[in-house]
Amino acid sequence: MISGLKFRNIPQVYTLPAIKTSALTAISFKGDTFSRSKSTLDRFIDGEIDPKYTKENSGTNGKVSIIKEEGREPVVIKFSHTEPFNPKTGLVQRVGVNFDKEASNLKLIPDSVKNSTKFIGMKSVNGVNYLVISYVEGKNPYANDAPEVTMQHIKSCMDDLFELDKAGLLHRDLLPENVLVTNDGKLNITDYGAGVTFKEMTKMQADPKYAHPENWLYSNINTFEELFVLPYCKFLTDKDKEEEAKKLFVEFLREKGDFHGKKTQPTDYPENQRKTEKIQAKIFSRIKPDNSEDKLTKDVTELEILRINIRMAQKISRLYNASGVMKNPLTSLYFHDWSGACAKQLINRSNTLEKDYEKDPAMINFLKTEKEYAEHNLKKVYKPVRKELRRLLDNADEQLISNIISEGLRAPIFNQVDGTKTNNNVRITTIYAPRKTGIFH
Q1: How far apart, in whole angstroms, are the C-alpha atoms of residue 317 and residue 389?
Q2: CA nearest 221: which of 269, 185, 290, 267?
Q3: No. of H helices and E strands in the chain?
Q4: How far apart are CA 368 and CA 354, in angstroms?
Q5: DSSP track, 357-371
Q6: Under a CB-based contact definition with an 8 Å cutoff, are residues 329 and 396 in contact?
Q7: HSE-up of 433 (CA within 13 Å, CB side)?
Q8: pTM of the predicted model, to two decimals?
Q9: Which residues, in sequence order, are CB contacts of 355 under 8 Å at separation 6+?
Q10: What gap in Å lies between CA 376 and CA 365, rounded to an integer?
Q11: From CA 219, how far away is CA 225, in angstroms rounded?
């Protein structure tokens, strides 16, 4: 049982094998209206829901069932992977995850966040943990039948992300499959399992060689541009829609400038990040989305794409993942060199542009921050990590070499012991890996 996480007003119950869940009376609720009836979760556990109303998928940490019954609010039930039933104990042998972190994150989402899944309840039955959340409409933006993302979608999401900032909650996993696009101009945010609070962030400030780039960014919008906006622009470019991609990205930068210029950041926002965003806001507000030939617009767009690419490449090039599992060092080296190349290019381009904007103090200040960011990454991340990667490859044992040869760049993450691949970063590599030439590649 997970302590502290319960259905509203219902104590958690240890359900023994001899007692059927259907014998328990639960409280179902909609809004503030309560009624004595069997909850959707209890009916789901007892197999009483007609399969035609249920769609099941597998997630990273468990299985996911979407339940849409007539006359009831649709819900999503996540339940953990388990081993086969153990007849001696009457319980499953192992529970994969308990969802307590995701549930605690969901409870922090304020009502001011309009387009997001929300917490409904949580329960443990026979050693299996269940998390119930609200269902939100939408499709993965990369799906063939998904509507094209517009600035209307992005603006609505930025408002919600800022409300999460104010609540002190960082999502950290704003990939397209977790930010669903709708036909009515919204992006619905889902899957808060990787989220952390601002207070937790202070405990995660580790060696930058191994830390997630998000661990140094107290901003959902900065993560959003890295994981969603720029990859989506790359996606549009791959579909021969580079002009649409350029316009969307420039409009995003302009909106980001207005956003940071008008909205007060949370009180516990890091001062250096607050300062950087104010500098960016002054420049982004001068961008002209309707004039693609404007020099400042072109220059700033080029620099920002380089800066975001540094973070994107670093995410893949980290030698170890958050669980301490070693990644394929050859893949890490490939993306690490990409990160280093972008950093060097950002420094060189900033130095060149200083001459063009020598009479523009605001732009000079902006170029300085861009250059400082790139120099920090070269010194603190690129050089030490590349040295370690080269050492690892030079001293690779037979098993590691075999893993690299057999999987290559197709499976960037390996189990350190047996070389078993996990598919999570295959998807990320597909999104980020350069495939064409052009402004976004």
Answers
A1: 10
A2: 269
A3: 14, 13
A4: 9
A5: TTT-HHHHHHHHHHH
A6: yes
A7: 14
A8: 0.76
A9: none
A10: 17
A11: 10
Q: Are 306 and 342 in contact (CB under 8 A)?
A: yes
**Lookup: tokens for 165:** 């900032």
Give the helix/strand (H/E) hosting 169: strand 169-170
Q: What is the pLDDT of residues 259-303, one digit of tens each?
A: 888 777 777 777 888 888 899 999 999 999 988 789 999 999 999
Distance from C-alpha of 353 to C-alpha of 437, rounded to nearest angstrom: 23
Region of residue 126 (left: phi > 0; alpha: psi -120 to 50; beta: else):
left
Ranges of each domain in the chain: 21-134, 151-432
Question: pLDDT, tens digit, for every residue of 411-439?
Answer: 333 333 333 333 333 333 333 344 444 56
CATH topology of domain 21-134: Phosphorylase Kinase; domain 1 (3.30.200)
**Cα–Cα distance between 301 and 253 in angstroms, integer?**
8
- DSSP states along 211-275: S-GGGG---HHHHHIIIIIHHHHHHHHHTT-HHHHHHHHHHHHHHHHHHHHHSPPPTTS-HHHHH
CB 181 within 8 A of CB 154: no
